[in-house]
Amino acid sequence: MSESFRVGTRGSALATTQTGWAATRLAEASGLQVETILVKTEGDVITGPLSQLGGTGVFAAALRQRLLDSGCDLAVHSLKDLPTTQPEGLVLAAIPEREDMRDALCARDGLTLAELPEGAKIGTGSPRRAAQLLAFRQDLQIVDIRGNVPTRLGRVKGTGATHDDGSVGRSVQGDLDAVILAAAGMRRLGLEAHITEYLDPAIMLPAPGQGALALEVRAAGSDHPALDRALAELDHLPTRLQVEAERALLAALEAGCAAPIGALARVQGGTLVLEAVACNPDGSETMRRSARASAATVAEARELGRSLAESMIADGAAVVAGLA
Question: Which end of the chain, C or N, has fewer beta carbons within 10 A?
Answer without folding.
Answer: N
